[in-house]
Each structure stands twice: as structure tokens, then as C-alpha cells.
Write a sequence for this structure.
């Protein structure tokens, strides 16, 4: 979901944006180069990584789509490991990693544990700049429906603004708000590791007008 919102935001800050996609996709933005490929085959497309100054990692799946908790972890870990290793091998200075609120390698919850494991892997590579984003509930149009999440979003929509104002650490964040925050963070944090919690992401996204 976040990828389709992120690419247009990145064109505000970068002269060229390379966007790998699984399904055929056309872009009318001359700054965006579309590369169609299956995500497990990213390592076979060095042109995605070669010469890049920043990589934004926003891939992921769901346990429902994966079929089981074990398969979910396998897919999440393999995708992230592949991309992080390629970034390291191509000496990319900056990685922006989309994680999750509550990510923790010691967690008993499979989703939060694998996100924490991925964060730990990224930290171990000592990128010049590593930005870890931990959003709360993400609001936007998904390629696949998540029934319970959809109910939550519809219930929260009328009170989203006050939630974001008075409880920013827990409030939902819209996909285009997160996309803008990720893009802006890459310009503001050029060295070291920076963890952006949900409240930080909302603050970043609201500092300038949004591109929607």
C-alpha cells in the first residue's frame, strides 16, 4: 500500500526514483522508472540498487496471505534479508526501513518479533544512515482486504484528527502521511541511526503541505 504513495512523494526530493513493482504499472511521472519483477528476484536486478543514494524498504506480507505463521516469518525475513544484503553489497549509504510500532526481536508476537529481527539485521550493517520508521495503524487502500482492520479504520475515521493531535503515539496514520514522512526523513537524517515512532512520523508529515 505504501509504495504507490511513496514514489510520487520521493520525486519532490530526488531527480530519479526507481520503483520495482510486481504487477504491470504505468507512471506518467518522468522521474519514476518502473521495473517489473517478482520481489524474491530483486537480487537479480542490480540496476535497482546500482548508484542509488537511498533505498526505501517498504515490502511485507500478511499471515493470511502467507498461509501460516511460520511461512509469514519466512517470507518477511527472506525479502528483508535480500534487500538489506543488496544495499550493503552495493555500498548504499542510506536505508529507510519501514518497520512497525512495537517491533522487538524479543517479542512473543510473530509479527513484532520478525520486524524486530529485521531492524537488528539492518543495524548490524552499519549503514552511514539508517532510518527505522515504526508507524501505528496504517490507513489507506490496500491491494488486499483486511476485514477487521477495515472495520477499525471506518470506526476511527471520524475522530482521526483529534486522535492525531492528542494521542499521536497511538493514532492511525494515513498512507500518504507516512509516505511524506519517510521521504522527508531521508533528507533530515544523513548520519547514524534514527528511529521514528508514530508521533515523529505524524509531526514530519504535517510540517509541509501534503501531495495527495
Amino acid at each position: 500500500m505504501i509504495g504507490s504513495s511513496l514514489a510520487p512523494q520521493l520525486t519532490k526530493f530526488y531527480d530519479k526514483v526507481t520503483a520495482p513493482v510486481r504487477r504491470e504499472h504505468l507512471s506518467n511521472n518522468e522521474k519514476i522508472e518502473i521495473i517489473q519483477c517478482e520481489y524474491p528476484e530483486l537480487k537479480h536486478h542490480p540496476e535497482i540498487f546500482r548508484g542509488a543514494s537511498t533505498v526505501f524498504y517498504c515490502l511485507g506480507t500478511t499471515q493470511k496471505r502467507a498461509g501460516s505463521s511460520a511461512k509469514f516469518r519466512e517470507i518477511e525475513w527472506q525479502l528483508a534479508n535480500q534487500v538489506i544484503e543488496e544495499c550493503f553489497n552495493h555500498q548504499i549509504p542510506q536505508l529507510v526501513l519501514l518497520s512497525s510500532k512495537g517491533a522487538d526481536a524479543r517479542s512473543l508476537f510473530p509479527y513484532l518479533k520478525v520486524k524486530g529481527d529485521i531492524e537488528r539485521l539492518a543495524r548490524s550493517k552499519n549503514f552511514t544512515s539508517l532510518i527505522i520508521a515504526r508507524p501505528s495503524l496504517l490507513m489507506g487502500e490496500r491491494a488486499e482486504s483486511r476485514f477487521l482492520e477495515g472495520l477499525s479504520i471506518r470506526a476511527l475515521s471520524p475522530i482521526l484528527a483529534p486522535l492525531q493531535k492528542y494521542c499521536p503515539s497511538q493514532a492511525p496514520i494515513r498512507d500518504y502521511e507516512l509516505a511524506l514522512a519517510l521521504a522527508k526523513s531521508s533528507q533530515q537524517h544523513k548520519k547514524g541511526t534514527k528511529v521514528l515512532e508514530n508521533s515523529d512520523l505524524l509531526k514530519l508529515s504535517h510540517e509541509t503541505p501534503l501531495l495527495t
Residues 19 and 34 are 5 Å apart (CA to CA). Residues 69-89 form the longest helix (21 residues). The chain has one domain: 2-205. The two ends are 14 Å apart (CA to CA).
